[in-house]
Design a protein that fits this description.
487 residues; mainly alpha; two-stranded antiparallel ribbon; 21 helices; globular
Amino acid sequence: MATRPDAPAPAEGGWAAPALAAVALVTGLRLLLLAFDRTDLFVDESQYWLWGRHLDFGYYSKPPLIAWVIRLATGLAGSDAPFWVRMPGALLHGAAAMILAALAARIAGRRAAVAVALAYVTLPFAALGSLLISTDTVMAPFYALALLAWFRLAEGRQARFALLAGAAAGAACMAKYAGAYFLLGAGLAAALVPQMRPGWRNTALLLAAFALTILPNILWNLTHGLATVSHTMDNVGWVREDRPLAGLHPGKAAAFLAAQFAVAGPILFAALLAAPWGARSDPRLRALLLMSLPIVAIVCGQALLSRAYANWAIAAYFAGTLAAVLWLQRRFPRLLGWSLALNGALSLALPLLTIVAPWPEAGGAPLLKRYLGRADLSRQIIVTAHEAGVGAVYSFDRDILADLFHTGRGSGLSFYGPRPAGRPRNYYEQTFPLPKDPGPVLMVLAGPPVCDGRPVPALRSFDTAGGAYAKWHLAAYLLPEGCDAGP
């Protein structure tokens, strides 16, 4: 199909080599520092790893792509060590940076492309996502690819880009349901920016490719009691009939907005908020803003009604990074330099903190205490189970179970969670509930279980100082065979 009259001039060449060199340098440094990371896998990371041991088209709380990625990385490496679980993060953010740079080159040329690559790869959330594997990180390159394909579609209305945009957005959604924000942004851009209208046929192709890509997860949810959808509704909270609105929470909305200055960096987020005042004459900048700012507004509204975590608006910063960089380059280029320097320093500080952990401390506890002490507690539990001669361990807590499965992967022990009372509250209740006749079980609890009307004596108390469980009082109890003290 012929190029539309309003398509951009050919992108200025020569951007790829400097952008790739910068992204490769940052990514390589991140992988090097990750090898010296002293933190334990966080509860979510351990759970994603466990999902990867049981490949499926969906899981209790998330779509499946993160499990597939971790399984691929650890399978190729032949190791389930934390480094290999987390290693894909830096590569995926590096890929996203290059894809966004390619889009910037088409929109604004070489300088913009290199600046966008540097801006994205040094974003605080990209730095954190290179240390801790998350669904946001796995979503990133696919969302970026959907954006690139969408703008290519708007330029020439070629069907192949409609299919690519839909499939890439679907893959982003298979990583995290926030990938569906792409459809909202594309719809707003098409409605309000005439240059971004792809035509009805291409719209149908895009939606068909999207639907086909996410179909396996839809079918999985339909055959598993809509487990992931139900968990997502739990997170949103106020949409459930059994959780009516309890007033507005302006403080939570303000806290969410304040957190975005840390997620994207203070200068870049401020530029994104200011960019609408300079977008009237630039249809592509308007389109980028329509694909970013509404996401921030929606999640801010969610925080006002109930709650919202800082990372729930991550999808805004793929188009948002381009919009902020383009606006800064045109109006305040010196501020863009300051933003790159500030975010770059933060990107270096974060991995250094994981290397020197448990130092520094704040309030008498390690600053990174959430990521420390998890594997140590698991090792104590495993040793106690072996000494007691039992083959199974029960815990009431999702955090403890998550690390037990990972740290205890070669221990020969079975691990169980509570039996669900109604709908399971987590993946472990759903998949590994305590059997009715479990035989001798080591129970890790905050208080003694009762068997035949008597409290079971503790075998030992666990040392939980200096990490995630510092304020917990946990002990091991041997549940005799034939006694069912489970929930």
